[in-house]
Amino acid sequence: MGKKRKIALIIFFIFIIFILNFKKVFALNIKDGTIAKIEGKETLYLISGKTKKIFPHLSVYLSWGYPQDFSTVDLVEESALANYTNDGFVPFKNGSLVREESNPIVFYVENAKLRPVRKDWAYQSIFEDPEWQKIIFFPDGFLNQFNYQVGEMISSLADLKPEKIDFYPELRIFNSEGKLENAFLVFDKNYKGGINLGTADLDADTKEEILIGAGFGSQPEIKIFRSDGTLISQFLAFEKSFKGGVNLAAGDLYGDGQKEIIAGAGIYGSPHLRIFTKNGELITHFFADDKNLRHGLKVAALDFDQDLKEEIVCGIEKEKGFYIKIFSLSSTKKPLKAFLAFEKLGGGEFSLGTGDINADGIKEIVIGSGSDAEPEIRIFDKNGNLLNKFLAYEKNFKGGVKVALADLDKDGKEEIITTAGFSGGPHLKIFDESGQQKNSFFVYDENYKGGVNVAVLNMETEKKIIVVPRLTLIKGVGFYKGVEIDTKKQKLYAYQNGFLIEEEKASTGRPAMPTPLGDFKVLRKSLVKYSKKYNLYMPHWMQFTSSGAGIHGLPYWQDTWGRVYEGVGHLGLPVSHGCVRVSLRAAERIYQWLNVGDRVLVHQ
Ligand SMILES: [Ca+2]
Ligand SMILES: [Ca+2]
Ligand SMILES: [Ca+2]
Ligand SMILES: [Ca+2]
Predict the structure, then answer these.
(1) Phi-psi category of 65—alpha, beta or left, where left has phi over 0 and alpha has psi -120 to 50?
(2) How many angstroms does the Cα of residue 429 sit away from the middle of ligand 4?
(3) Which residues have a beta carbon within 5 Å of ligand 1, which is an ion?
(4) What 8-state DSSP symbol labels residue 208?
(5) For residue 178, which of 116, 357, 441, 586 is within the disulfide window of CB 3.0 to 4.6 Å?
(6) Segment-wise mean pLDDT, segments of 10 residues, the chain, 604 residues
(7) 307 CA distance to ligand 2 centroid (A)?
Protein backbone atom coordinates (compact mmCIF):
# COMPACT_ATOMS: atom_id res chain seq x y z
CA MET A 1 0.00 0.00 0.00
CA GLY A 2 1.31 3.39 -1.00
CA LYS A 3 1.82 5.99 1.63
CA LYS A 4 -0.77 8.27 0.11
CA ARG A 5 -3.38 5.56 0.07
CA LYS A 6 -2.60 4.67 3.67
CA ILE A 7 -3.16 8.27 4.78
CA ALA A 8 -6.35 8.44 2.75
CA LEU A 9 -7.61 5.27 4.45
CA ILE A 10 -6.74 6.56 7.91
CA ILE A 11 -8.57 9.80 7.16
CA PHE A 12 -11.47 7.73 5.88
CA PHE A 13 -11.60 5.69 9.12
CA ILE A 14 -11.35 8.76 11.27
CA PHE A 15 -14.20 10.16 9.27
CA ILE A 16 -16.30 7.01 9.80
CA ILE A 17 -15.51 6.98 13.52
CA PHE A 18 -16.42 10.63 13.64
CA ILE A 19 -19.74 9.93 11.92
CA LEU A 20 -20.49 7.00 14.24
CA ASN A 21 -19.58 9.01 17.28
CA PHE A 22 -21.59 11.90 16.07
CA LYS A 23 -24.60 9.68 15.63
CA LYS A 24 -24.09 8.19 19.03
CA VAL A 25 -23.72 11.56 20.71
CA PHE A 26 -26.75 12.76 18.91
CA ALA A 27 -28.74 9.80 20.10
CA LEU A 28 -27.45 10.19 23.65
CA ASN A 29 -28.17 13.83 23.75
CA ILE A 30 -31.67 13.79 25.26
CA LYS A 31 -32.07 16.67 27.62
CA ASP A 32 -32.25 15.97 31.35
CA GLY A 33 -35.78 16.00 32.65
CA THR A 34 -37.25 15.01 29.28
CA ILE A 35 -40.22 12.70 29.37
CA ALA A 36 -39.69 10.33 26.46
CA LYS A 37 -41.91 7.81 24.75
CA ILE A 38 -41.09 5.37 21.95
CA GLU A 39 -43.38 5.83 19.02
CA GLY A 40 -46.16 3.22 19.08
CA LYS A 41 -45.43 2.12 22.65
CA GLU A 42 -47.14 3.17 25.83
CA THR A 43 -44.36 3.39 28.41
CA LEU A 44 -43.23 6.84 29.53
CA TYR A 45 -39.63 7.40 30.63
CA LEU A 46 -38.03 10.15 32.63
CA ILE A 47 -34.51 10.90 31.39
CA SER A 48 -31.90 11.97 33.89
CA GLY A 49 -28.14 11.85 33.26
CA LYS A 50 -27.39 8.46 31.68
CA THR A 51 -30.42 6.81 33.20
CA LYS A 52 -34.09 6.37 32.49
CA LYS A 53 -36.85 5.81 34.99
CA ILE A 54 -40.20 4.32 34.07
CA PHE A 55 -43.47 5.94 35.00
CA PRO A 56 -45.21 2.84 36.39
CA HIS A 57 -48.67 4.28 35.81
CA LEU A 58 -50.39 7.36 34.47
CA SER A 59 -51.32 8.31 38.05
CA VAL A 60 -47.64 8.85 38.89
CA TYR A 61 -47.14 10.98 35.79
CA LEU A 62 -50.16 13.09 36.78
CA SER A 63 -48.95 13.46 40.36
CA TRP A 64 -46.04 15.53 38.99
CA GLY A 65 -48.47 17.97 37.46
CA TYR A 66 -47.72 17.06 33.84
CA PRO A 67 -50.53 17.76 31.38
CA GLN A 68 -52.96 14.97 30.61
CA ASP A 69 -52.71 15.57 26.85
CA PHE A 70 -49.02 14.47 26.90
CA SER A 71 -48.06 17.70 25.17
CA THR A 72 -44.76 17.73 27.06
CA VAL A 73 -43.77 14.18 26.06
CA ASP A 74 -41.05 13.76 23.38
CA LEU A 75 -41.32 10.93 20.85
CA VAL A 76 -37.96 9.13 20.42
CA GLU A 77 -36.51 6.20 18.46
CA GLU A 78 -36.23 2.94 20.36
CA SER A 79 -32.47 2.90 19.70
CA ALA A 80 -32.11 6.33 21.27
CA LEU A 81 -33.14 4.94 24.63
CA ALA A 82 -30.97 1.83 24.38
CA ASN A 83 -27.97 3.55 25.92
CA TYR A 84 -29.78 4.73 29.01
CA THR A 85 -29.61 2.33 31.92
CA ASN A 86 -32.78 1.47 33.72
CA ASP A 87 -33.10 3.13 37.10
CA GLY A 88 -36.37 1.80 38.45
CA PHE A 89 -39.64 3.65 38.73
CA VAL A 90 -40.58 7.28 39.09
CA PRO A 91 -42.28 7.65 42.49
CA PHE A 92 -45.32 9.77 43.26
CA LYS A 93 -44.44 13.38 43.83
CA ASN A 94 -44.02 14.40 47.45
CA GLY A 95 -47.10 16.19 48.66
CA SER A 96 -49.47 14.54 46.21
CA LEU A 97 -52.74 13.04 47.39
CA VAL A 98 -53.47 9.55 46.07
CA ARG A 99 -55.90 6.69 46.61
CA GLU A 100 -56.62 3.21 45.30
CA GLU A 101 -59.67 2.89 43.01
CA SER A 102 -61.72 0.79 45.43
CA ASN A 103 -60.23 1.80 48.77
CA PRO A 104 -61.50 5.15 50.05
CA ILE A 105 -58.43 5.97 52.16
CA VAL A 106 -56.58 8.98 50.83
CA PHE A 107 -52.79 8.98 51.25
CA TYR A 108 -50.47 11.94 51.45
CA VAL A 109 -47.12 11.13 49.82
CA GLU A 110 -44.09 12.13 51.85
CA ASN A 111 -40.52 10.86 51.37
CA ALA A 112 -41.28 7.30 50.23
CA LYS A 113 -44.05 7.11 52.80
CA LEU A 114 -47.78 7.11 52.34
CA ARG A 115 -49.49 8.87 55.18
CA PRO A 116 -53.19 8.08 55.52
CA VAL A 117 -55.43 11.10 55.96
CA ARG A 118 -57.70 10.26 58.82
CA LYS A 119 -61.22 11.15 57.68
CA ASP A 120 -63.06 13.22 55.12
CA TRP A 121 -63.26 16.17 57.48
CA ALA A 122 -59.54 16.01 58.15
CA TYR A 123 -58.91 15.96 54.42
CA GLN A 124 -61.17 18.95 53.83
CA SER A 125 -59.83 20.94 56.72
CA ILE A 126 -56.22 20.48 55.70
CA PHE A 127 -56.32 20.45 51.93
CA GLU A 128 -59.43 22.57 51.33
CA ASP A 129 -60.62 20.63 48.33
CA PRO A 130 -64.45 20.61 48.39
CA GLU A 131 -64.68 18.96 44.95
CA TRP A 132 -62.06 16.31 45.79
CA GLN A 133 -60.14 17.34 42.71
CA LYS A 134 -56.67 17.06 44.16
CA ILE A 135 -56.87 13.29 44.57
CA ILE A 136 -55.10 11.07 42.04
CA PHE A 137 -56.45 7.53 41.65
CA PHE A 138 -54.32 4.46 41.03
CA PRO A 139 -55.38 0.84 40.32
CA ASP A 140 -55.90 -1.62 43.16
CA GLY A 141 -52.75 -3.50 44.09
CA PHE A 142 -50.59 -1.08 42.15
CA LEU A 143 -48.48 -0.14 45.15
CA ASN A 144 -46.89 -3.60 45.39
CA GLN A 145 -44.14 -2.63 42.97
CA PHE A 146 -42.97 0.19 45.24
CA ASN A 147 -41.29 0.16 48.59
CA TYR A 148 -43.72 2.61 50.07
CA GLN A 149 -44.02 2.42 53.83
CA VAL A 150 -47.19 3.46 55.55
CA GLY A 151 -46.39 6.65 57.44
CA GLU A 152 -47.97 8.36 60.41
CA MET A 153 -51.63 9.21 60.10
CA ILE A 154 -52.57 12.82 59.39
CA SER A 155 -55.50 14.02 61.45
CA SER A 156 -54.79 17.69 61.88
CA LEU A 157 -52.84 20.50 60.39
CA ALA A 158 -50.18 20.14 63.02
CA ASP A 159 -49.33 16.69 61.61
CA LEU A 160 -48.24 18.22 58.34
CA LYS A 161 -44.92 19.61 59.49
CA PRO A 162 -43.14 19.93 56.14
CA GLU A 163 -45.30 22.95 55.39
CA LYS A 164 -43.88 24.79 58.36
CA ILE A 165 -41.33 27.27 57.09
CA ASP A 166 -38.81 29.11 59.18
CA PHE A 167 -37.83 32.42 57.74
CA TYR A 168 -35.40 35.18 58.63
CA PRO A 169 -36.59 38.69 59.54
CA GLU A 170 -34.82 40.20 56.56
CA LEU A 171 -35.80 43.58 55.17
CA ARG A 172 -35.09 44.12 51.49
CA ILE A 173 -34.74 47.35 49.58
CA PHE A 174 -35.50 47.46 45.85
CA ASN A 175 -35.29 50.33 43.42
CA SER A 176 -38.46 51.31 41.60
CA GLU A 177 -37.56 48.91 38.76
CA GLY A 178 -37.36 45.91 41.07
CA LYS A 179 -33.59 45.62 41.43
CA LEU A 180 -32.48 44.44 44.88
CA GLU A 181 -30.16 47.09 46.37
CA ASN A 182 -29.80 46.22 50.02
CA ALA A 183 -30.97 43.76 52.67
CA PHE A 184 -30.48 43.50 56.42
CA LEU A 185 -31.98 41.79 59.46
CA VAL A 186 -34.39 43.95 61.47
CA PHE A 187 -34.55 41.51 64.35
CA ASP A 188 -32.27 38.79 65.62
CA LYS A 189 -31.92 35.87 63.19
CA ASN A 190 -33.89 33.66 65.59
CA TYR A 191 -36.77 36.11 65.94
CA LYS A 192 -40.05 34.24 65.64
CA GLY A 193 -42.91 36.62 65.18
CA GLY A 194 -44.52 38.95 62.73
CA ILE A 195 -43.05 42.15 61.28
CA ASN A 196 -44.82 45.39 60.33
CA LEU A 197 -43.44 48.25 58.36
CA GLY A 198 -43.62 52.02 57.89
CA THR A 199 -41.47 54.93 56.75
CA ALA A 200 -41.03 58.59 57.74
CA ASP A 201 -38.37 61.26 57.54
CA LEU A 202 -37.90 61.82 61.25
CA ASP A 203 -34.76 63.99 61.18
CA ALA A 204 -35.80 66.23 58.27
CA ASP A 205 -32.81 65.43 56.05
CA THR A 206 -35.14 64.53 53.14
CA LYS A 207 -34.22 60.86 53.44
CA GLU A 208 -36.86 58.73 55.06
CA GLU A 209 -36.12 56.37 57.89
CA ILE A 210 -37.53 52.85 58.19
CA LEU A 211 -40.01 52.11 60.96
CA ILE A 212 -40.25 48.49 61.99
CA GLY A 213 -43.06 47.33 64.23
CA ALA A 214 -42.97 43.93 65.83
CA GLY A 215 -45.81 41.80 64.55
CA PHE A 216 -47.88 39.24 66.32
CA GLY A 217 -46.15 37.05 68.89
CA SER A 218 -43.50 39.42 70.17
CA GLN A 219 -43.36 42.39 72.52
CA PRO A 220 -44.68 45.57 70.86
CA GLU A 221 -41.41 47.09 69.82
CA ILE A 222 -40.84 49.92 67.34
CA LYS A 223 -37.38 50.10 65.79
CA ILE A 224 -36.11 52.92 63.62
CA PHE A 225 -33.42 52.21 61.04
CA ARG A 226 -31.52 54.17 58.44
CA SER A 227 -31.70 52.70 54.94
CA ASP A 228 -28.16 51.32 55.38
CA GLY A 229 -29.39 49.15 58.26
CA THR A 230 -28.09 51.32 61.14
CA LEU A 231 -30.40 51.11 64.13
CA ILE A 232 -31.20 54.67 65.33
CA SER A 233 -33.55 53.97 68.21
CA GLN A 234 -36.13 51.59 69.61
CA PHE A 235 -38.95 51.74 72.14
CA LEU A 236 -42.13 49.92 73.16
CA ALA A 237 -45.38 51.14 71.62
CA PHE A 238 -47.72 49.38 74.04
CA GLU A 239 -47.57 47.45 77.29
CA LYS A 240 -44.78 44.92 77.24
CA SER A 241 -47.25 42.09 77.77
CA PHE A 242 -49.23 42.95 74.62
CA LYS A 243 -48.23 40.45 71.93
CA GLY A 244 -50.54 41.53 69.10
CA GLY A 245 -47.96 43.57 67.25
CA VAL A 246 -47.76 47.20 66.12
CA ASN A 247 -49.16 48.71 62.92
CA LEU A 248 -47.31 51.82 61.81
CA ALA A 249 -47.76 55.04 59.92
CA ALA A 250 -46.41 58.58 60.18
CA GLY A 251 -48.00 61.97 59.68
CA ASP A 252 -47.25 65.64 60.24
CA LEU A 253 -50.04 66.11 62.75
CA TYR A 254 -49.01 69.61 63.89
CA GLY A 255 -48.06 71.07 60.53
CA ASP A 256 -44.54 71.92 61.71
CA GLY A 257 -42.75 69.90 59.06
CA GLN A 258 -41.94 67.21 61.61
CA LYS A 259 -43.62 63.83 61.33
CA GLU A 260 -45.11 62.00 64.27
CA ILE A 261 -45.21 58.23 64.59
CA ILE A 262 -48.70 56.70 64.67
CA ALA A 263 -48.92 53.23 66.20
CA GLY A 264 -52.04 51.06 66.04
CA ALA A 265 -52.47 47.83 67.97
CA GLY A 266 -51.99 44.66 65.93
CA ILE A 267 -54.33 41.71 65.45
CA TYR A 268 -56.17 40.49 68.53
CA GLY A 269 -55.64 43.90 70.13
CA SER A 270 -58.18 46.66 70.88
CA PRO A 271 -58.51 49.52 68.36
CA HIS A 272 -55.94 51.41 70.40
CA LEU A 273 -53.82 54.18 68.96
CA ARG A 274 -50.70 55.81 70.33
CA ILE A 275 -48.86 58.78 68.89
CA PHE A 276 -45.15 59.28 69.52
CA THR A 277 -42.56 61.90 68.75
CA LYS A 278 -39.63 60.82 66.63
CA ASN A 279 -37.79 60.10 69.89
CA GLY A 280 -40.41 57.72 71.17
CA GLU A 281 -42.08 60.08 73.64
CA LEU A 282 -45.79 59.44 73.96
CA ILE A 283 -47.82 62.47 72.85
CA THR A 284 -51.31 61.11 73.19
CA HIS A 285 -53.38 57.97 72.83
CA PHE A 286 -57.01 57.06 72.32
CA PHE A 287 -59.36 54.28 71.21
CA ALA A 288 -60.76 54.68 67.73
CA ASP A 289 -63.71 52.44 68.58
CA ASP A 290 -65.07 50.02 71.17
CA LYS A 291 -62.25 48.79 73.40
CA ASN A 292 -63.63 45.27 73.30
CA LEU A 293 -63.08 44.80 69.59
CA ARG A 294 -60.26 42.37 68.88
CA HIS A 295 -58.99 43.00 65.36
CA GLY A 296 -56.49 45.72 66.08
CA LEU A 297 -56.24 49.00 64.23
CA LYS A 298 -54.77 49.96 60.87
CA VAL A 299 -53.38 53.47 60.57
CA ALA A 300 -52.49 56.06 57.91
CA ALA A 301 -52.54 59.87 57.55
CA LEU A 302 -53.92 62.51 55.20
CA ASP A 303 -54.80 66.19 55.40
CA PHE A 304 -58.60 66.01 55.47
CA ASP A 305 -59.35 69.74 55.75
CA GLN A 306 -56.29 71.05 53.92
CA ASP A 307 -54.91 73.12 56.78
CA LEU A 308 -51.46 71.54 56.34
CA LYS A 309 -51.89 69.46 59.47
CA GLU A 310 -52.47 65.83 58.72
CA GLU A 311 -55.35 63.87 60.21
CA ILE A 312 -55.25 60.25 61.31
CA VAL A 313 -56.97 57.61 59.20
CA CYS A 314 -58.03 54.56 61.19
CA GLY A 315 -59.16 51.24 59.77
CA ILE A 316 -61.30 49.17 62.12
CA GLU A 317 -62.75 45.74 61.57
CA LYS A 318 -66.09 45.18 63.29
CA GLU A 319 -69.56 43.67 62.87
CA LYS A 320 -70.23 44.09 59.16
CA GLY A 321 -66.80 44.81 57.78
CA PHE A 322 -63.95 47.27 57.59
CA TYR A 323 -64.69 50.84 58.64
CA ILE A 324 -62.65 53.97 58.01
CA LYS A 325 -62.65 56.73 60.60
CA ILE A 326 -60.72 59.96 60.23
CA PHE A 327 -59.75 61.75 63.44
CA SER A 328 -57.99 65.02 64.12
CA LEU A 329 -55.88 65.40 67.25
CA SER A 330 -58.35 67.99 68.53
CA SER A 331 -61.27 65.59 68.14
CA THR A 332 -60.33 62.10 69.18
CA LYS A 333 -63.80 61.24 70.51
CA LYS A 334 -65.74 62.00 67.37
CA PRO A 335 -64.33 61.29 63.91
CA LEU A 336 -64.43 63.96 61.19
CA LYS A 337 -65.55 61.26 58.82
CA ALA A 338 -66.59 57.62 59.11
CA PHE A 339 -67.69 55.12 56.47
CA LEU A 340 -67.91 51.41 55.77
CA ALA A 341 -65.23 50.58 53.18
CA PHE A 342 -65.62 46.79 52.85
CA GLU A 343 -68.79 44.86 53.67
CA LYS A 344 -66.68 41.86 54.68
CA LEU A 345 -64.57 40.75 57.59
CA GLY A 346 -60.91 40.06 56.95
CA GLY A 347 -59.38 38.39 59.99
CA GLY A 348 -57.49 41.54 61.03
CA GLU A 349 -55.64 41.49 57.71
CA PHE A 350 -56.97 44.54 55.89
CA SER A 351 -54.29 46.91 54.72
CA LEU A 352 -54.54 50.68 54.58
CA GLY A 353 -52.59 53.36 52.72
CA THR A 354 -53.00 56.95 51.58
CA GLY A 355 -51.64 58.65 48.49
CA ASP A 356 -52.59 61.06 45.74
CA ILE A 357 -53.40 58.71 42.87
CA ASN A 358 -54.98 61.34 40.60
CA ALA A 359 -52.66 64.32 41.07
CA ASP A 360 -55.27 66.70 42.49
CA GLY A 361 -53.21 67.51 45.57
CA ILE A 362 -55.47 65.52 47.92
CA LYS A 363 -54.63 62.03 49.12
CA GLU A 364 -56.96 59.14 48.49
CA ILE A 365 -57.51 56.18 50.81
CA VAL A 366 -56.44 52.83 49.40
CA ILE A 367 -57.46 49.57 51.06
CA GLY A 368 -56.34 46.00 50.44
CA SER A 369 -58.85 43.29 51.37
CA GLY A 370 -58.37 41.04 54.37
CA SER A 371 -58.16 37.28 54.49
CA ASP A 372 -60.83 34.80 53.38
CA ALA A 373 -61.99 37.23 50.70
CA GLU A 374 -61.06 38.03 47.10
CA PRO A 375 -57.79 40.01 46.79
CA GLU A 376 -59.44 43.32 46.09
CA ILE A 377 -58.10 46.86 46.13
CA ARG A 378 -60.55 49.68 46.78
CA ILE A 379 -59.79 53.36 46.32
CA PHE A 380 -61.89 55.99 48.11
CA ASP A 381 -61.68 59.74 48.21
CA LYS A 382 -61.36 61.25 51.69
CA ASN A 383 -65.16 61.55 51.93
CA GLY A 384 -65.72 57.85 51.42
CA ASN A 385 -66.75 57.87 47.75
CA LEU A 386 -65.55 54.73 46.00
CA LEU A 387 -63.41 55.82 43.02
CA ASN A 388 -62.28 52.43 41.79
CA LYS A 389 -61.78 48.79 42.72
CA PHE A 390 -59.89 45.91 41.13
CA LEU A 391 -58.38 42.53 41.93
CA ALA A 392 -54.64 42.55 42.58
CA TYR A 393 -54.14 38.76 42.44
CA GLU A 394 -55.99 35.67 41.26
CA LYS A 395 -59.59 35.68 42.38
CA ASN A 396 -59.21 32.48 44.38
CA PHE A 397 -56.27 33.74 46.43
CA LYS A 398 -57.72 34.60 49.82
CA GLY A 399 -54.81 35.64 52.02
CA GLY A 400 -55.39 39.39 51.79
CA VAL A 401 -53.53 42.18 49.99
CA LYS A 402 -51.02 44.65 51.44
CA VAL A 403 -50.72 48.10 49.89
CA ALA A 404 -48.24 50.99 49.68
CA LEU A 405 -48.33 54.12 47.54
CA ALA A 406 -45.68 56.10 45.68
CA ASP A 407 -45.19 57.97 42.44
CA LEU A 408 -42.55 55.68 40.98
CA ASP A 409 -42.74 56.91 37.38
CA LYS A 410 -42.75 60.60 38.37
CA ASP A 411 -45.94 61.60 36.53
CA GLY A 412 -47.41 63.22 39.63
CA LYS A 413 -49.83 60.33 40.30
CA GLU A 414 -49.00 57.81 42.99
CA GLU A 415 -49.01 54.15 41.98
CA ILE A 416 -50.42 51.34 44.09
CA ILE A 417 -47.88 48.74 45.14
CA THR A 418 -49.25 45.44 46.38
CA THR A 419 -47.95 42.32 48.06
CA ALA A 420 -49.84 39.17 48.96
CA GLY A 421 -50.76 38.26 52.52
CA PHE A 422 -50.61 34.91 54.29
CA SER A 423 -50.49 31.81 52.04
CA GLY A 424 -49.58 33.83 48.95
CA GLY A 425 -46.25 33.93 47.16
CA PRO A 426 -43.84 36.87 47.55
CA HIS A 427 -45.12 38.53 44.39
CA LEU A 428 -45.02 42.32 44.33
CA LYS A 429 -47.13 44.19 41.79
CA ILE A 430 -47.43 47.82 40.76
CA PHE A 431 -50.74 49.24 39.46
CA ASP A 432 -51.86 52.64 38.24
CA GLU A 433 -55.05 54.23 39.56
CA SER A 434 -57.18 52.48 36.96
CA GLY A 435 -55.96 49.06 38.08
CA GLN A 436 -53.67 48.56 35.09
CA GLN A 437 -50.63 46.48 36.10
CA LYS A 438 -47.36 48.30 35.37
CA ASN A 439 -44.75 45.97 36.75
CA SER A 440 -44.29 42.94 38.99
CA PHE A 441 -41.43 41.00 40.56
CA PHE A 442 -40.65 38.49 43.31
CA VAL A 443 -39.18 39.89 46.49
CA TYR A 444 -38.32 36.67 48.37
CA ASP A 445 -37.86 32.98 47.67
CA GLU A 446 -40.93 31.73 45.85
CA ASN A 447 -41.46 29.02 48.46
CA TYR A 448 -42.05 31.58 51.18
CA LYS A 449 -45.80 31.74 51.77
CA GLY A 450 -46.15 33.76 54.96
CA GLY A 451 -47.08 37.00 53.24
CA VAL A 452 -45.08 40.16 52.68
CA ASN A 453 -45.53 43.67 54.08
CA VAL A 454 -44.56 46.57 51.86
CA ALA A 455 -43.77 50.30 52.15
CA VAL A 456 -42.03 53.02 50.15
CA LEU A 457 -38.90 54.83 51.21
CA ASN A 458 -38.47 58.34 49.82
CA MET A 459 -34.78 59.13 49.42
CA GLU A 460 -34.37 62.73 48.22
CA THR A 461 -35.31 62.35 44.56
CA GLU A 462 -35.39 58.55 44.49
CA LYS A 463 -38.01 56.15 45.73
CA LYS A 464 -37.25 52.69 47.04
CA ILE A 465 -39.64 49.83 47.65
CA ILE A 466 -39.03 48.05 50.94
CA VAL A 467 -40.44 44.73 52.08
CA VAL A 468 -40.36 42.51 55.15
CA PRO A 469 -41.72 38.99 55.63
CA ARG A 470 -45.06 39.28 57.39
CA LEU A 471 -44.09 36.50 59.76
CA THR A 472 -41.08 34.27 60.33
CA LEU A 473 -42.74 31.15 61.73
CA ILE A 474 -45.90 29.80 60.20
CA LYS A 475 -48.35 27.89 62.35
CA GLY A 476 -51.78 26.48 61.66
CA VAL A 477 -51.21 26.35 57.91
CA GLY A 478 -54.50 26.27 56.06
CA PHE A 479 -56.40 28.28 58.65
CA TYR A 480 -57.24 31.86 57.87
CA LYS A 481 -59.06 32.13 61.11
CA GLY A 482 -60.54 29.64 63.49
CA VAL A 483 -60.05 27.30 66.40
CA GLU A 484 -58.77 23.77 66.53
CA ILE A 485 -59.84 21.60 69.43
CA ASP A 486 -57.74 18.57 70.21
CA THR A 487 -59.86 16.25 72.36
CA LYS A 488 -56.89 14.00 73.02
CA LYS A 489 -54.69 16.77 74.39
CA GLN A 490 -57.69 18.66 75.82
CA LYS A 491 -56.45 21.83 74.19
CA LEU A 492 -57.97 24.65 72.21
CA TYR A 493 -55.79 26.45 69.66
CA ALA A 494 -56.81 29.70 67.98
CA TYR A 495 -55.19 30.53 64.66
CA GLN A 496 -55.18 33.59 62.52
CA ASN A 497 -53.41 33.80 59.20
CA GLY A 498 -50.48 31.65 60.17
CA PHE A 499 -50.24 32.85 63.76
CA LEU A 500 -51.10 30.69 66.75
CA ILE A 501 -52.72 33.43 68.79
CA GLU A 502 -54.05 31.44 71.70
CA GLU A 503 -53.45 28.06 73.27
CA GLU A 504 -55.76 27.13 76.11
CA LYS A 505 -56.57 24.18 78.31
CA ALA A 506 -60.01 22.90 77.42
CA SER A 507 -62.48 20.44 78.81
CA THR A 508 -64.42 18.49 76.19
CA GLY A 509 -67.16 15.89 76.54
CA ARG A 510 -66.81 13.02 78.96
CA PRO A 511 -66.52 9.56 77.35
CA ALA A 512 -70.26 8.93 77.63
CA MET A 513 -71.09 12.32 76.09
CA PRO A 514 -68.26 13.03 73.68
CA THR A 515 -67.84 16.32 71.84
CA PRO A 516 -68.76 15.77 68.18
CA LEU A 517 -65.71 15.53 65.93
CA GLY A 518 -65.58 17.31 62.63
CA ASP A 519 -65.04 20.50 60.72
CA PHE A 520 -67.67 23.02 61.81
CA LYS A 521 -68.43 26.69 61.70
CA VAL A 522 -69.62 28.99 64.45
CA LEU A 523 -73.41 29.04 64.04
CA ARG A 524 -74.38 31.59 66.66
CA LYS A 525 -73.01 33.44 69.62
CA SER A 526 -74.61 34.75 72.78
CA LEU A 527 -73.15 36.33 75.88
CA VAL A 528 -74.84 33.80 78.14
CA LYS A 529 -76.74 30.67 77.21
CA TYR A 530 -78.97 28.92 79.71
CA SER A 531 -79.28 25.14 79.72
CA LYS A 532 -82.60 24.10 81.18
CA LYS A 533 -81.58 20.46 81.19
CA TYR A 534 -78.63 21.04 83.51
CA ASN A 535 -79.85 24.30 85.07
CA LEU A 536 -76.52 25.85 84.08
CA TYR A 537 -75.52 29.15 82.56
CA MET A 538 -72.81 29.06 79.92
CA PRO A 539 -70.99 32.38 79.47
CA HIS A 540 -69.63 33.52 76.10
CA TRP A 541 -71.48 30.84 74.20
CA MET A 542 -70.29 29.96 70.67
CA GLN A 543 -72.42 27.20 69.17
CA PHE A 544 -70.92 25.09 66.38
CA THR A 545 -73.26 22.12 65.85
CA SER A 546 -77.01 22.18 65.26
CA SER A 547 -77.35 19.55 67.99
CA GLY A 548 -76.16 22.18 70.45
CA ALA A 549 -72.44 21.72 71.04
CA GLY A 550 -70.58 24.95 71.68
CA ILE A 551 -67.49 26.56 73.12
CA HIS A 552 -68.02 28.52 76.32
CA GLY A 553 -66.52 29.66 79.59
CA LEU A 554 -66.86 27.55 82.74
CA PRO A 555 -70.59 27.02 83.38
CA TYR A 556 -72.24 28.21 86.57
CA TRP A 557 -75.47 27.93 88.43
CA GLN A 558 -77.09 30.64 90.38
CA ASP A 559 -77.85 30.06 94.05
CA THR A 560 -78.58 32.41 96.90
CA TRP A 561 -74.85 33.03 97.39
CA GLY A 562 -74.31 34.03 93.79
CA ARG A 563 -72.64 32.16 90.96
CA VAL A 564 -71.17 28.75 91.56
CA TYR A 565 -68.82 27.63 88.80
CA GLU A 566 -68.60 24.03 87.74
CA GLY A 567 -65.46 22.21 86.75
CA VAL A 568 -62.99 24.88 87.84
CA GLY A 569 -60.31 22.32 88.58
CA HIS A 570 -61.14 20.18 85.58
CA LEU A 571 -59.77 22.15 82.67
CA GLY A 572 -57.58 19.73 80.76
CA LEU A 573 -59.90 16.81 81.52
CA PRO A 574 -62.86 15.55 79.45
CA VAL A 575 -65.73 16.11 81.88
CA SER A 576 -68.25 18.27 80.01
CA HIS A 577 -71.67 17.28 78.65
CA GLY A 578 -70.34 17.54 75.10
CA CYS A 579 -69.44 21.22 74.91
CA VAL A 580 -65.93 22.65 74.90
CA ARG A 581 -65.22 24.49 78.12
CA VAL A 582 -62.37 26.93 78.56
CA SER A 583 -61.51 29.38 81.33
CA LEU A 584 -63.73 32.45 81.74
CA ARG A 585 -61.04 34.82 80.56
CA ALA A 586 -60.14 32.69 77.56
CA ALA A 587 -63.81 32.35 76.58
CA GLU A 588 -64.27 36.11 76.73
CA ARG A 589 -61.23 36.77 74.52
CA ILE A 590 -62.19 34.09 72.02
CA TYR A 591 -65.80 35.28 71.97
CA GLN A 592 -64.74 38.82 71.08
CA TRP A 593 -62.49 37.60 68.31
CA LEU A 594 -64.35 34.63 66.78
CA ASN A 595 -67.22 35.46 64.44
CA VAL A 596 -70.24 33.54 63.24
CA GLY A 597 -69.06 31.54 60.22
CA ASP A 598 -65.49 31.11 61.49
CA ARG A 599 -64.08 27.64 61.54
CA VAL A 600 -64.14 25.18 64.44
CA LEU A 601 -62.19 21.99 63.85
CA VAL A 602 -62.61 19.27 66.47
CA HIS A 603 -60.47 16.17 66.30
CA GLN A 604 -59.00 13.45 68.48
CA1 LIG B 1 -34.19 61.26 57.58
CA1 LIG C 1 -55.69 68.87 58.47
CA1 LIG D 1 -56.04 62.88 44.91
CA1 LIG E 1 -47.06 57.87 38.88
Answers:
(1) left
(2) 14
(3) 201, 203, 205, 207
(4) P
(5) 441
(6) 52 45 48 86 89 91 88 86 88 91 91 87 78 91 81 74 65 94 90 93 92 93 96 96 94 94 93 96 97 94 96 95 96 96 92 98 97 95 98 93 96 97 92 96 88 95 95 74 93 89 94 92 96 92 96 91 84 95 96 91 89
(7) 5
